[in-house]
Amino acid sequence: MLISRKIEIDYGHTLPNSFTFCNQLHGHRGVIVATVEGPVIDRSGDIEEGMVMDFKFLRQIMDEHIHDQLDHGFAVWKEDKEDLEFILRRNTRVLVTDEPPTAEYLAKWAFNQIEDKLPEGVTLKNLRWYETPNNWADYDGH
To answer: Could you tell me which of 100, 91, 97, 99 has the C-alpha nearest to residue 72?
Structure first.
């Protein structure tokens, strides 16, 4: 069985090598959807009977390891020295990335943030990172 949970964050980034407006310091209303897979719990009387896991617990994992790390923060590439220096002076919530902080990279980052935090028997199958309502990246761990 597959279940999904969505959270939303506000974050900024810049893509210094981009030929579009994305090379400017700017922000997004990011929507992140995690899809997990596992068996439906059938232990009689279990608080999660009939569920793969409680959506509340999936949200807590996503909030702690994604939302609380980047919401109202800024993702900046470690090779973007000028912007990195400026952002580190101005912001307390900064995600320094190993690659340009594209939707693709942020989907991979978020996947890795929560993959090993799930309960036993529950597997993260996909992490979808919406940069805008019309643009997103999916990462499945490969």
So the answer is: 91
Confidence of residue 136 (pLDDT cuts 50, 70, 90): very high
117 within 8 A of 65, measured Cβ to Cβ: yes
CA distance 142 to 121: 20
Check whether 85 has a pLDDT greater than 80: yes
Distance CA 15, CA 116 (A): 29
Kindly list the distances between the CA atom of residue 14 and the CA atoms of 3, 72, 75, 141, in Å, as whole numbers in the listed order: 32, 14, 8, 24
Give residue 72's region: left, alpha or beta (phi > 0; psi -120 to 50).
left
Q: What is the pTM of this model?
A: 0.94
SS3 94: strand
Q: Is 79 left (phi over 0), alpha (psi -120 to 50) or beta?
A: alpha
Burial label for 36, CB within 10 Å (0-12, 13-18, 19+), is buried
53-64 exposure pattern, b = at least 16 Cβ within 10 A, e = fewer: beeebbeebbee
Two tokens, residue 67: 């939302």
